[in-house]
From TrEMBL:
<keyword id="KW-0966">Cell projection</keyword>
<keyword id="KW-1133">Transmembrane helix</keyword>
<feature type="transmembrane region" description="Helical">
    <location>
        <begin position="12"/>
        <end position="30"/>
    </location>
</feature>
<keyword id="KW-0472">Membrane</keyword>
<feature type="transmembrane region" description="Helical">
    <location>
        <begin position="42"/>
        <end position="60"/>
    </location>
</feature>
<comment type="similarity">
    <text>Belongs to the FliR/MopE/SpaR family.</text>
</comment>
<keyword id="KW-0812">Transmembrane</keyword>
<keyword id="KW-0282">Flagellum</keyword>
<feature type="transmembrane region" description="Helical">
    <location>
        <begin position="125"/>
        <end position="148"/>
    </location>
</feature>
<feature type="transmembrane region" description="Helical">
    <location>
        <begin position="215"/>
        <end position="233"/>
    </location>
</feature>
<protein>
    <submittedName>
        <fullName>Flagellar biosynthetic protein FliR</fullName>
    </submittedName>
</protein>
<keyword id="KW-0969">Cilium</keyword>
<keyword id="KW-1003">Cell membrane</keyword>
<dbReference type="GO" id="GO:0005886">
    <property type="term" value="C:plasma membrane"/>
</dbReference>
<dbReference type="GO" id="GO:0006605">
    <property type="term" value="P:protein targeting"/>
</dbReference>
<feature type="transmembrane region" description="Helical">
    <location>
        <begin position="66"/>
        <end position="89"/>
    </location>
</feature>
<feature type="transmembrane region" description="Helical">
    <location>
        <begin position="172"/>
        <end position="194"/>
    </location>
</feature>
Amino acid sequence: MDFAFDPAWLEAVMLASVRMAAFLVIAPPFSNRAVPMRVKAGLALALGLAVSPAVVPGYTPPDGAGFLGALIAEVGTGALLGFLVYAVFSAIQSAGGLLDLFGGFQLAQGFDPQSMVQGAQFARFFNLAAIALMAASGAYLVVLMGMFQSFDAIPLGVGIDVARSAESAVDAASGILVSAAQIAGPLLVVLFLADAGLGLLTRVAPALNAFAMGFPLKILLTLALAGTVFVALPGVVDALTETAIGAMRKGW
């Protein structure tokens, strides 16, 4: 029995797997430390094999130095697309950080080595909730589908347009705070009004020292009303998934 070995097929699968691996290391929910690196490597190889029928026919094997350049280009492409997804979904964690800041939980800030999230309770809670919602709703499949489409827009070894990609990365990063404010906005308004009310009460009755009541009052309001923000998270994850796909397509 004859066995035909095609080096071009192996190179194409390897390059596709490298792009997938760079994407999975950065993009949520795959970037979570709960997913071992061996699992990410195996998943990247499996996804590279899955897209091989689409990428192998149009692949032209370069020489030795050209293959090294193609390998670096695939790492950069996967890392950029992963960063765009990460920047979009960081808005949920940033919204939790705003709640921690305005609600008085920032004093209990800590670092979670498992999820690589630095923040207080709501920042970590919202990050875990976003990952769980992405897994439960199938949003990660939509993100992977957008990654698969990148092989049509950016063939193997071609690389990305640096200027266009930098513009997309800046737009995604600048939109984090705006999206976070939109997510946590209603509760932030309530906390601001509570501060304003305490300020007026201090002016009316200075001896009352109303600001001493501010910390427990704001913590109580945050805990009582944070559920309204959490209820809206499924719709937020759905909207951010579409935004992430749009950012990836803009980066092409």
